[in-house]
Amino acid sequence: MCPADSLREAVPVREADAASARPHTEDPLRDLGVRTHANGGTIRVWSANAASVELVVFDPADLERPIARSPLARDAHGVWEAHSPALVAGAVYGLRVDGPDGPPHAFDPGRALLDPWARGLHPAADGTFRGVVLDPLAEEGFDWGGVGKPRVPLDRTVVYETHLTGFSRLNERIPEPLRGTYAGLAHDASLEYLTGLGVTTIELLPVHAFATEEWLRRKGRANYWGYNTVGYFAPHAPYASAEARAGGAAAVRHEFAGMVRRLHEAGLEVVLDVVYNHTAEEGQGGPTLSLRGIDQASYYRHDAHGRPVDTTGCGNTIDFGTDAAVRLVLDSMRYWAGELQVDGFRLDLAATLGRDAHGTFTPEHPLLQGMLDDPVIGAGKLIAEPWDVGPFGWQTGGFPPGFTEWNDRYRDRMRDFWLGDLRRERHGEPGSGIGRFATRLAGSSNTFAADRGPLASLNFITAHDGFTLADLTAYDVKHNEANGEQNRDGTDHNNSYNHGVEGPTDDEGACGASAQHPQPARNPAALGGRADAHGRRRVRAQPARQQQRVLPRLRTHLAHVGRRRTRRRPRGDHPAPAAAAPREPGPAAGRLRAARRARADRVADGLVHARRRHHDDRRMARPLPPHPAVPGCVDAPHRRVQPGAARRARLRDARRRAAADPPGRRRVRTAVGFRRRGAGRRARHPRGAWGSRRRGAAVDAALPCPRRIASRLMSGLVR
Length: 719
Prior knowledge:
By secondary structure, this protein is an alpha/beta fold.
C-alpha cells in the first residue's frame, strides 16, 4: 500500500459507469489527452488490450511521489476516461497500465508512462518522461498580435532546411544566452540573414521532444538531429533558452510560439520536419516510455507471429492500420498548425504513413486523406519523404495530389550531370547526356502524374542526409570512421567527384569546381542553407554543429554545356598579327571540328535521337552505324545522291514514319533548330540549339510532348 493512498482522488464507480453508458453520437476518439475545465481536468486515452488504466499525478518537486490517483473507466470503443480535480495547469502526471502478459504485449503496472497526447513534458531522473498539463495557448495570455501566416504559393517557395541549435550557436551577433535556441532563430541578426538569402520557408529539423537512443547513450554520445521522438505535442525543451526552461513547459511553448510569430512578421514560413513513423522506444529490448506500455500490440506493427515489423530502420514502426494511431498524428498536426501556427510539415519516411493494416502502401490511406481533408492541416504545405525501408518502400510519385515530394531522382540526376559527366569526360568515357537531366529540370514528368504537375516535385541537391555541397566536390567515398561503426553508416551512392584529390586541398584545379554555382531551375522548392554557402565540408554522417545547405545554381554551368567554342585573339605577350593571312584548314582544324560535333552529339543524345550524316569530299551521303541509344534505329539505304535530294528523301521517310505512329505520339520531322519552309523546298539550317550548325541531319525519334518542352527549356537557358 502506497503511503500516498490517502491522497487518492478516485472517481466514483457509478459516475464512471454512467459516463461510459451515455450514448455518444460524436467521434469515439474525440478529445484524447487532457482537457482542463473549471473543476480540474478530464483525461482520455485509447488502449484496446489494457485490463486497467490508472492516472497518477506527481509532486513536481519529486517525480517519485504521487499526490493523486484516479482509475480510468473504459467505454465500448477502447477509450479510457477519468476526471480528476488534480489535473490543473502545471500538473505533472503519468499513466500506469496493466494487461495481458507475453508477446506482443509489454504491460507493466509498476511503470509510469507518458500520455501520448501530453502538451508538455517533464523528464524524470531515470530517463523516462511525465506529461505536463497545459491550458490552451490563448488562455495563457499569448498574443499573436494580428500576425498571420505568410502563405507563400508553392511555385514561389524556396525552402531553407536548418537545425535549430546549429543555426545560431556560433553566431556572435546573437547574445550568448540566446544562441542555439528558439529565441536565437527569432533574433534580428537571424532574420536579417534569412531574408537576405531570399528564401521563403524555414524547414526545421525535428523540434518535437526527443530522446537519445540507448546505444548512443552507452557510447557517451547524444542524438543531435532529433529523429527519435518521445512526444508529438511538446517542443523540445533543450532548444529553449535557460530562462524558458526554468519557467517550465508553458514557458518553453511560449518561446516557440514567439519564434513562429517573429518569423511570420519577417514574411518567412515555418515548416517542421516531423517523425510520425516510429518513436524513441526503439526495437525489442528498447525503453518503455509511452505507446509500448499503453498497448504495444495495437500501436506498433507486428507480423502474424507477434514479431515487430520494422519499415523505418529504427526498431519499431507505428501501425497506421489502427484508427487511434491515425488520430494521434492528425491531432498532433492540427495542434501545431492551429494553436502554434506552423505553416506545414515535412513527413519523414512518409511511405510508412501510407501503409494499411496489411502493410501495403496506398495513396488512399485514411491518414494521408485525412491530412488533405482537414481544413487546418490541408491549408498548409505537406512535403513527403516518399520512401521507407520496407517492401516496395520507394514511392516517389505515388502520393495523392496535394502532397509535394522529395525528388531523389532530381537530386541524383543533377549531381550526375554536374560531377559524374565531368569525371567521365576526364577519363575519356561518354557522358550520360542531357536527356534525363532535361526531364528532371522540366518537372520529372516520367515520375509524377500529369494531374499533379511539376509542383509535386520538391527539387534539391543536398539535404541533412549525406554529403554537403562542398563534400560532393572533395570526396569520392564517405569517411564515417569517427562514428565508431566501421564506416558502415551512410550511403555509398553520392554521385560525388573529388577532382583528383580526396579531401580538403589547396590545389586550384580541384578547388575550382567548388566555385561553380549554377543558377536554380524553375521548380517549386529547393533546399538551401548557410553552411554550404560558406563552403563548409562535413564528410562524417555524425552531425556537425551546422547542417544547412545551399541551393545550387544551374544556369552558369548549363551555359557551358555544348557551347560552341571559337578561337580568341591571343592576349598579353602574344598579340595577334595585324593582318593574318588566310590559310587552309589543316588536320588539327578538322580534328577540332570533329570534336565539336562529337560533343554536340553527346549533349543531344537522350533529348533528341537525331541521326547525323557526314559528307565526304565528293559530297556523297554515307550512313553511320545504328545509334546505340535508339533501339531499332536503322539508316536509309546507302545511295549515291546529291545532298539536296538526300535531304528531301529523308524528310519523306520521316513523314511516312510519323503517319504510322500510334495516337498520342509526336514525331519531330526535323532536327533540333531546323524548320521547313514548305513542301518540296530545301530545309533551312539555322544555328542549332547548342550553338553548332547541323548539316544533313534527320530525326528518327518519337518524342512525347514533355521531352519537346524540355528541349525548348534547355535551349532557352543556354541562349
